[in-house]
Amino acid sequence: MSRINPYIAALLLLLLLLSACGSSPPVRYYGLNAIESIAVNDPDGSPVIAMGPFRMPEYLNRSQMVTYGANSELLVDDLSRWAEPLDDAVHRILASNVDILLTSAAVVAYPAAALLDVDYRLVGRIARFNADQSGLVVLEMQWAAGDSDGNQLLAPTRKRYDSQATDAGSPGSIARAMSEALEKASRDIAKEIESAIK
């Protein structure tokens, strides 16, 4: 019985590995979007508001998108990933949105805000921020704000925001719905801040 040449066997194995790699689906990256707006300079002397930190659940502290399955199962999509850490994106989008919505203040995002002298700081916690299998995105968050002297500006508030993805099976559609949920939260935060600092 003849033996297979080890070089030919190694070559065949390499070709099999390469063909397996070539057939795997590509990883796709997604991001969250802020409210579209024309940039406007803040008036001189505007108060500065620090947005964050917001504590995020550990299960969201990953590059992959996470959705809820049946029986509270968490589904991690290895092929659909965030273009930046979700924690950073949430802080950036909330700060950008609130800055756009507020004409009477400048808003900066955590962690850069930690290095600045600010007039007010809004902090909070996000309990949930993902979609279920029907494409319903749920953002559950709470926040409070105070001034630089430790005085309360906004009492602790807890709210839930829902947004429906147009296509439950599309990660891009889910990312858009998540952006919409953040926009709803931003509008509430901006309205409360504006009333409090008048």
SSE topology sketch:
Elements: H1 6-23, E1 28-30, E2 48-55, E3 64-68, E4 74-82, H2 86-101, E5 106-109, E6 120-131, E7 136-147, E8 152-164, H3 171-197
Parallel strand pairs: 1-4, 2-5, 2-6
Antiparallel strand pairs: 3-4, 6-7, 7-8
Word description of this protein:
- The chain contains three helices and eight strands.
- It has a five-stranded mixed beta sheet with strand order 5-2-6-7-8, covered by helices on one side. It has a three-stranded mixed beta sheet with strand order 1-4-3, covered by helices on one side.
- The chain has 198 residues and is α/β, with parallel strands linked by helices.
- Helices cover 31% and strands 33% of the residues.
- Helix 2 (86-101) packs across helix 3.
- The relative contact order is 0.17.
**Low-pLDDT regions:** none
What radius of gyration results from the CA coordinates?
23 Å
By secondary-structure content and strand pairing, the structural class works out as: alpha/beta
Strands of the widest sheet, in order across it, are: 5-2-6-7-8
State mean pLDDT (0 to 100 scale).
89
Give the overall shape.
Answer: elongated
Order of helices and strands: HEEEEHEEEEH
